[in-house]
Amino acid sequence: MSRPTGWHRDTPNTDGCAPAANCVFRRRTPPVLCPATTAPWDSGRTRQRDRGVRLNRQPVADPVIIDGRPLADQLAQRTHAIVTATVEHVRGQVAFYRTLPPEVIRRDVTAIVRRNLELFVTTLHENRDPEPHELLSIEQSARRRAEERVPLTDVISAYHLGVQLWWRTIAELAGPDDADALARAGVLLQRHLQSATRAVLAGYGADQAPIPPQDHDRRRLYRALTSGEDVAEAARSVGRTLAPRYWVVALRVAAHPDERVEGIDATVASRRKLRRLEYALDRLGRGETLHMVTEQGGGALVPAPEVDPESRFEEFAAHLAELGRDIGAETVCAVDSAVPQDIPEVHREVDELLRVALRYHRRSGVVRFADLAVEYQLTRPTRVSRINAAALAPLAGDPSLRLTLETYLAHDSSTTATAAALHVHSNTVLYRLRKITELTGLDTTKTRDLLRMAAALAAAPRESP
């Protein structure tokens, strides 16, 4: 961490009442400053220190002067150090923040702490209260925390703890003759906290409000298109124009790694994953995607080319395949295209195609009917399905036999590839195949019996883990 000019990092103060020697920042002899800036004189040029706040250099009437220098300038020079100390302090004092995924702390929490400090320094420099538009980022951040089910009391506590640390830092900057200036700074800091608190409450209140109209309209149109309602009327009622053709997508999303980490709040991680998924789908359709998704997946309708959509499928599939990377979780997508009046039927079919892909243990990627045509056909329920399923009933007592058979068929009846996939010796595979033949009466060396076994596996699939 870079050190602010004239200051050094010391032991953090976490109890709120430690003596000056134990404060986060301790004063040394200040440097000689260029008259027009907060940065030290540098060969006739000025430079910004510590990635600090860029302040408006227009003259300000009656600035808050602490120890002979504008307080806003001193805080601006120490932006990075103060932000880092604030995040550490909040995590140390609010237990819930220690359960947040590292990504949330590194990006969201640190960013909003910095935004708050920059806003306070700006209003301190200009001797005014924050404007409503300047508080929007705080309100939006609070809305995200509400979506992630972060308790409101913990968010408010974090803001108060941050302001307490800033106040201690300001107090340590003051000299014995700065009582009046210190009082003015305290009033401005308190007014900043009041404004920030109102923005946080607005963000949490907005989370309890109805779905925003534009999202509600898109969901209504998605339901109309997939259920076979009068889509023309639905489109008119929400003031939207239907695309001539859509990619119909069914998707399943696995858990994000943060959802499985002990001590990390899984709800926060899953809500963040959902938000990223919604954003990625919107971007895929340039803001025109219709979707209804949860943390586990769902469906989407993405506008497709009206003429010859197949020529653009590879490009679209490549974007779909990137969803998993974008949201940080494995994603399987089943997709086909349809004109609006055919969407209900195609929607049901791609949902079923997705289930088939999951039956055959697809973990990620994009599938179409051509990819799983045989598997799709074999899994259609018929009277014969029950007969086929019963053929493998004798294997129920030994799961390793069924797993071996599935792997053997998936690897084109190669014992060597099957052994490598199962991490066993080839002789073990041969032994298990002979055991399967003995129990079922179906010979794994005969094509007809292998087809029967494949149909039986499709009729009675093993549950995905």
UniProtKB/TrEMBL annotation:
- Xref: Gene3D superfamilies: PucR C-terminal helix-turn-helix domain
Q: What is this protein called?
A: PucR family transcriptional regulator
Query: Species name for this entry?
Result: Nocardia otitidiscaviarum
What is an example of a Pfam family matching this protein?
Answer: HTH_30
Against InterPro entries, the record matches this protein to: CdaR-like_regulators, PucR_C-HTH_dom, PucR_C-HTH_sf, RsbRD_N_dom
Q: Where is the RsbT co-antagonist protein RsbRD N-terminal domain?
A: 81-209
Q: Where is the PucR C-terminal helix-turn-helix domain?
A: 402-459
